[in-house]
Amino acid sequence: MAMTAKRYIELLKLRIGGMITLTALVSYLAMAEQVSLAHIAMLILVMMLGSASSAVFNHFYDRDIDRKMERTSTRPLATKEMGNPYNALWLAGGLIITGVGIASWYFNPIVGLHLFLGAFVYGIVYTVWLKRRHWVNIIIGGAAGSFAVLAGAASVCPELCVLPLLLAVVLFLWTPSHFWALAIFLKEEYRKVGVPMLPVVVGEQRAANWVLVNSILLVGSSLVPWYLGELGVIYGIGALIAGVLLLAGNWKMVQTPTRQEAWKNFIGSMRYLGILFLFLVIDAQTPEDFLNYLF
To answer: The domain spanning residue 210 has which CATH number?
Structure first.
């Protein structure tokens, strides 16, 4: 059965790709002294290609359990609309080769390496090796987002710098708080297909406790760039505001670890990242800078 263009686009998980790309762009803006719109456009392109590659592979590998979960049962490969599912592997391979090639050519090989490693961690380390085997799956798999930070920074400065490394740690710690809240909400779905997400293994209450503990580490790590002087007081204020809001939501979920509170925390974790990114960019790039770039 031939797939429509809309169904092919579903394979790419563009919403996740957009978040990964935004992470790289924020890292780029934090490092860039001169911002180029052409540079931004190419960074968006290569990050979306890399993310899309791992998304297609995830659709391919998880198609058996996707059919059994209500949330994912209508995905293109789960419904067998693509015909031979192994065609998805060719698509995934073409996307990552194109993305890494363009990144290495237009920017430098370090950007291409980070792009590849991000896709590899999500596609192979998380999806194949860990997701169905151990509850630490999302902790280690969260490194995929960290590589997006490093890729954005490397497009400006290929050498390892303190600030992008600190931001990579923030993204690494953000992922468990974000995803464990969703996993509490979807616990029965994961239990049904035998995926050992943390709430399935330890229950909602202990999982909520772990979210709070992880978020305390996350908020602490987010203040380190300000403490070390890598970012200024504007960022520090934003990190503090975002952290207080996140921890307040986590505390409510600890008190009442229901699906409703879990969903609020899932959304709250995205709000946290949005506030953090906004204040980071404002701190790193003044309004006058943006006006100079646009006019």
So the answer is: 1.20.120
- pTM as predicted: 0.92
Total structural domains in the chain?
A: 2
Q: What is the C-alpha separation between 126 and 132, in angstroms, rounded?
A: 9
Do residues 136 and 168 share a domain?
no
CA distance 263 to 94: 35
Element housing 227 (H / E): helix 204-227
Query: Going residue by residue through the chain (295 aa), what tens digit of pLDDT does each one get?
Result: 456 777 788 888 999 999 999 999 999 999 998 888 999 999 999 999 999 999 999 999 999 999 999 888 888 888 887 778 888 899 999 999 999 999 999 999 999 999 999 999 999 999 999 999 999 999 999 899 999 999 999 999 999 899 999 999 999 999 999 999 999 999 999 999 999 999 999 999 999 999 999 999 999 999 999 999 999 999 999 999 999 999 999 999 999 999 999 999 999 999 999 999 999 999 998 655 555 555 5
User: How many CB atoms are located within 10 Å of the residue 88 CB?
Assistant: 21
In the numeric block, which tokens belong to residue 150? 């490093």
Q: Supply the DSSP string of 69-128, one letter for each residue.
A: STTTTTSTTTTTTTSSTTHHHHHHHHHHHHHHHHHHHHT-HHHHHHHHHHHHIIIIIIII
Single residue among 160, 191, 209 that ends a domain in this structure: 160
Say how far apart CA 66 and CA 57 lie, in whole Å.
13
146 with 186, same domain: the answer is no
Q: Are residues 169 and 247 in the same domain?
A: yes
Residues of the domain holding 61: 1-160
Single-letter residue type at 174: W
